[in-house]
Design a protein that fits this description.
This protein has 341 residues and is of the alpha+beta class. The protein is 37% helix and 20% strand.
Amino acid sequence: MFDRSSKITAPSSVDPLTDMLRGLRLDGVDYGRCRLSGDWSYHYGAQPHAYFHFVAGKGCWLHGPDGRWSELTAGDAVLVPRGAAHTLASRPGLEPRPFPRRDCLAICESVFDYAEEGEGDAALLFCGSMRFNLDGLHPLLQLMPDLMRAQELMVSEPTIPHLLEAMVAECAMNRVGASGILARLADVMAAQIIRSWVERGCGEAKGWLAAVRDPQIGRVLAAIHAEPERDWTVADLAERMGVSRSGFAAKFTAIVGSTPARYVAEVRMHQARQWIGRDGMRIAEAAHRLGYDSEASFSRAFKRIVGAAPGRMRSAPFQRSSPLPLPSGEASGSSAGPGIT
């Protein structure tokens, strides 16, 4: 019923990291408006998707992934990008219970209402789950903090107060389509939070982040991530950087900490992981798209990079496994399979 997707876009003259964010999209999985009175405490377990919470009216408390309590007030928006476990409560110290999703009233597809009556004023929350189009092992997603708050990140964003005001108003009203509009606003808010995090420096610029912001290396990384299925060669990537093949390989390995072959292999296999686990693509088709001569050779390379056979991606819901090993400095390019020579 509602097309709930947000994309982060950018002008054409941008740095490589911003260029990589052009294709970043958030799709709402489900959303709910919650009216909670009295004492309450709900635990949100770890999940593959991001969590989003918006507070309207009376505030509440958050027990974050870092194990600390913090107070949320009206207008607070929180994004938990990697779906880490956390708790929302009317006050600290209450025994939490899982959020009763099965007791919610469906409003439309993937949008629900929930109310819990008690004494005192009601807290009004809009909560949901969002799915990134990035693989959970993408280094950018791994670099994001466990929890991101709108008011901490966007003090200089002139449009945010108006967006927050609109969300407060929609939360408080029972007009037709209010929950669907809130879902759209939530998608935009989450995208704004991420954009602000990027523009404010993404924390300390080191490791992969420092590499992608290098004027030369950044162009190469952006190209690899934009076209992971391309048959990349050292000559192609060296041309992107504007240096010789030998100069490219030496600088890439020194800054990224991995050979070009290894890095390309990681990006390609984690793209394959999305195709198979999220999109339901046949393993043979993924192997063909990545240029492998046989499904067996593709499966061996996949398991070497991802740590599990591709068949396991098809037999279970799309999930994150261990974090993508940000370039480890392996000297061998043997795991790359077709794609870089």
